[in-house]
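User: I've been trying to design a sequence by hand for this structure and keep getting stuck. Would you show me what you'd pick, starting by listing the structure so we're on the same page?

Assistant: Good idea, let's start from the same input. This is the structure you sent:
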């Protein structure tokens, strides 16, 4: 590693020894004279990248597990520096997070990783602008139930009981919000199931999704479009995930010809309706890959793609990554955000 004249940290090479090192360097095209990843101005990387990989054949399973975790952490820190990630993270002491009732910090006031309460009707609220929200917390044997309220409406009751401690768990997610201002509230109900020893509710972090400029511009175009296009977009969002849905079937339902719908859509939205329909399906696929363990084939089907091979090719063209690589990247990002 080196820090260049601009103060940016460049990861030059990893020091590997053993019979597998030469082949690894050759396959990865790693050179001691050329940076692998540049422009990572992040001091945490220098703090974490403090290990050597020894492929001597004498490593224990525990050694491999520790090494894998270290490599994963370094990868996560690198991914954190990539600006294309859309979810923004707010920690328990972050701006805008408000608490009502008695909440305690853990493990200490000086180094807070999470906050928790067991007081009935105590709640934490967070106002945000965007189209998605996640709540991460801890599950444990002393955790109870919490109500999730979004924009004043009850959404779900989450039971965070687990026989063993599981930190950084995704407890609630909603990715179907309309753009604009929202408020999420997490209420401690003071209730628990029969196996739990207490009714703790824990906040690790909130993650919210804010639209980028291109999406905002698209929303503005839609707001200024005519009734036909607005209705077409509404139908697409409602029916895009049915494999039989097509531009022709939408046009028939709207009572116009396919060519007329395509012409109007392109003129008012700046793209053909088929492209918009695919984008709606792709967004659904991204959500499923991020938040579920479903197979790529299942994701393709539930997002409205009849052919998993076509879906994989289209997804890689849109994202620059295969569906599996995208999921791995998002999981690495989530680990970092929750650490």
């Amino acid at each position: 590693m080196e820090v260049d004249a601009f103060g940016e940290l460049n990861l030059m090479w990893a020091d590997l020894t053993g019979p597998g090192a030469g082949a690894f360097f050759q396959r990865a095209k790693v050179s001691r004279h050329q940076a692998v990843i540049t422009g990572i101005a992040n001091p945490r990387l220098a703090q974490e990248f403090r290990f050597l990989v020894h492929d001597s054949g004498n490593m224990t399973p525990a050694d491999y597990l520790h090494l894998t975790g270290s490599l994963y952490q370094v990868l996560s820190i690198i991914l954190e520096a990539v600006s294309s990630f859309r979810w923004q993270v707010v920690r328990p002491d972050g701006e805008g997070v408000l608490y009502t009732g008695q909440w305690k910090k853990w493990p200490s006031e000086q180094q807070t990783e999470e906050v928790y309460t067991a007081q009935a009707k105590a709640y934490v609220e967070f106002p945000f602008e965007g189209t998605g929200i996640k709540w991460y917390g801890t599950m444990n044997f002393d955790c109870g139930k919490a109500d999730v309220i979004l924009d004043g409406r009850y959404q779900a009751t989450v039971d965070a009981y687990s026989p063993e401690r599981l930190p950084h768990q995704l407890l609630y997610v909603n990715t179907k919000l309309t753009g604009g201002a929202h408020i999420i509230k997490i209420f401690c109900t003071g209730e628990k199931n029969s196996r739990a020893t207490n009714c703790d509710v824990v906040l690790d972090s909130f993650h919210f999704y804010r639209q980028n400029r291109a999406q905002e511009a698209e929303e503005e175009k839609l707001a200024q479009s005519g009734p036909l296009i607005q209705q077409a977009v509404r139908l697409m969002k409602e029916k895009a995930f049915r494999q039989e849905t097509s531009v022709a079937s939408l046009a028939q339902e709207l009572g116009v010809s396919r060519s007329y719908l395509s012409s109007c859509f392109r003129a008012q939205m700046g793209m053909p309706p088929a492209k918009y329909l695919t984008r709606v399906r792709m967004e659904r696929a991204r959500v499923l890959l991020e938040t579920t363990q479903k197979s790529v084939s299942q994701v393709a089907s539930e997002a409205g793609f009849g052919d998993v091979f076509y879906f994989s090719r289209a997804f890689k063209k849109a994202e620059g990554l295969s569906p599996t690589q995208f999921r791995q990247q998002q999981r690495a990002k989530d680990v970092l955000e929750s650490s």
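That's my pick for every position. To get oriented when you compare it with your attempt: Residues 139 and 166 are 5 Å apart (CA to CA). Residues 1-15, 32-56, 79-85 have pLDDT under 50 and may be disordered.
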